[in-house]
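Model the whole thing, not chain by chain.
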Amino acid sequence: MDYCNPSTSSPVLTGHSKLNKLDKLKLRAFPIRGMRNKSKPTSRTQAAGRRPSFGFNPLALLPLVLVTGCAATSTPLARHTADFSGATSLVVDNSENAYRAAVRLHDQEQASASVAKYDTDKPWDPHTIKPLIDAKGLQARSDVLDGLKAYAQSLADVTNGVDSDQLNAAATSVGTNLQAMGQAMNPTSSAATAPSTETTASADATISATSGFITPQEANAASTAFKALGDYLVSRKIKSAVPKVIRDMDPQIDTITKLLNSDIVIIRRQSALDYEQLLTQQDMFIRKSGSALSPIERRAEIEKLPGILASKQSTDDMLADLQNCLTQLALTHHALAAAAQNSNAASLQQRIADLHAAAERLARFYFSLPTTT
Amino acid sequence: MADAPPILKKPETIDDYQALYDALGRAYWEASDINSKDLVQGARESIYDIITDLDEAQLDANTALFLAVEPKIKQTCATLTKIQSDIDSITKNITTASKVVDAITKVLGIAAMF
């Protein structure tokens, strides 16, 4: 069953007990419409012989609310992409830190080695010092990592297009402007529709607050309808385009994470070597210094040795964690690509829950609108 | 005659060099006099230089792969930007509808003055 098709959605809705709450919300939202029809028509509408169709039949909203169930299916995708973006950003930052730390450590080793070699018979030229990764290599890695971050962020931004603040604001202004237009078309409506004794007896307090040709409730209904329509169109765009983007990107993410992992393997090995070199260089320095160091200086220099070993271990642990993160990143993106396809068996239940969530969201939006002019 | 221990074979891979480096490291700390330590460390530094050269070469090779993958990421980001633009235009269309209603309201206001 295609739950994005309003004609097939009804059984799901009726079968979902929690949606009764939504029905109640709708009844609360639109009671005045029926009551308003009972009120006397204004002189203008009588003269025109027809009534402008700005007033909304609340039932007309129902298909839109149902259709917006399609928008709801993007909600978990939006959640997943937001989570993915946050995790990716963290992995990218950690990877950049790892590169910086490895390059700095290697520079430190070379500086330390130069001190050891300086007074030996081996020729030593400061020009021979070279970074572990040259500027071009660092830039290439930085560009890819930044691109990965931008991709994850763009994905989160795009999939969060449904229920966006801009769309809400645009939909709200439609209702507000419709109400203003109603008042402009019927400036005397306030007096004409002022509640008589008999209407007051039958109408609730909301209708007595009516001051324009289009009631605030009708304007809100219009805003909600536009919001539903906008959500549906945005959702349709996301569902038609984003899963393919994620699917196409999946092998690239796999390649990138493997490439980064390959780098980390090298960096792990090189960092361990650099720390080992620093350790033995420090040891040789202490032993060759002999009596040139005071007992206190000697003690301080010896105490640095276990510190170097501890740094070696913590750096290795950090890089091992990063390797694990990179593996997880690839797996997460793969799961994201699968989820975006809605191809798993659990998606049906998820989609029903999402349909419910979208309907509630729409109801919340409706009730967030002002009911007085 | 049994094969020589792996550590004494001619190293062919980085792992072989790494094993040799680690063995020389143990020899360094076991050596009791400064001359022996100096000798071992001299050999160890040569191995270190070889491994470092190999590591740098591998990182250079990876740089080429990073450069190759970068355009694909840019292309994907451009696709997402296009989708975002399409989504923005949906919001814009609703805003335009609202503006049209607002404009009609203003015209009606002016018309009411005559």
